[in-house]
């Protein structure tokens, strides 16, 4: 499975770089910013990116905000392919989960695990 993080401004690249610094790798994970491009341009550019990646049949889009422009871009892309999935609310635990478990689980098991791990990373501390 391949992961594509789609966020506003430089957030996608910052999250990936941070994860890479901590884990030491970032294989099969790509960042994309929607800054200064239209939704249509973003969809076209991401389709081109997908053609060059290792597993173009199974892609998880991790976006920053459900209902936002990045989410819309990902949802447009998932319409054309049953092996594409969207997870919103991207955070470091979500990315860590993807990077450490992508080669161990099926696509469906992986996306559900990533979602659970992302939720586990959000805690209210007393």
Description:
- The chain has 126 residues and is α/β, with parallel strands linked by helices.
- It has one domain: 3-Layer(aba) Sandwich (Rossmann fold), CATH 3.40.50.
- The protein contains 5 helices and 4 strands; from the N terminus they run E-H-E-H-E-H-E-H-H.
- The chain has a 4-stranded parallel sheet with strand order 2-1-3-4, sandwiched between helices.
- Helix 3 links the parallel strand 3 and strand 4.
- The radius of gyration is 14 Å and the shape is globular.
If helices are DSSP runs of H or I spanning 4 or more residues, what is the number of helices?
5
Could you say what the CATH architecture is?
3-Layer(aba) Sandwich
Indicate how many domains the architecture comprises: 1
Give the biggest beta sheet. Answer: 4 strands, parallel
Shape: globular
Distance between the termini: 37 Å
Widest sheet, order of strands: 2-1-3-4
Number of strands: 4
Radius of gyration: 14 Å
Give the quaternary arrangement of the chains.
single chain
Derived from helix and strand composition plus strand pairing, the structural class reads alpha/beta
Q: Which runs of at least 5 residues are low in confidence (pLDDT < 50)?
A: none
The CATH topology label is Rossmann fold
């Amino acid at each position: 499975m391949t992961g594509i993080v789609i966020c506003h401004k430089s957030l996608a690249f910052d999250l990936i770089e941070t994860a890479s610094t901590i884990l030491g790798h970032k294989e099969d994970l790509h960042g994309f910013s929607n800054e200064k491009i239209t939704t249509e341009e973003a969809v076209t550019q991401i389709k081109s990116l997908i053609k060059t990646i290792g597993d173009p049949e199974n892609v998880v889009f991790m976006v920053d905000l459900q209902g936002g422009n990045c989410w819309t871009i990902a949802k447009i892309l998932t319409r054309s392919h049953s092996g594409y999935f969207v997870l919103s609310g991207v955070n470091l635990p979500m990315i860590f989960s993807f990077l450490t478990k992508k080669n161990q689980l099926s696509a469906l098991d992986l996306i559900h695990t990533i979602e659970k791990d992302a939720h586990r990373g959000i805690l209210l501390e007393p």
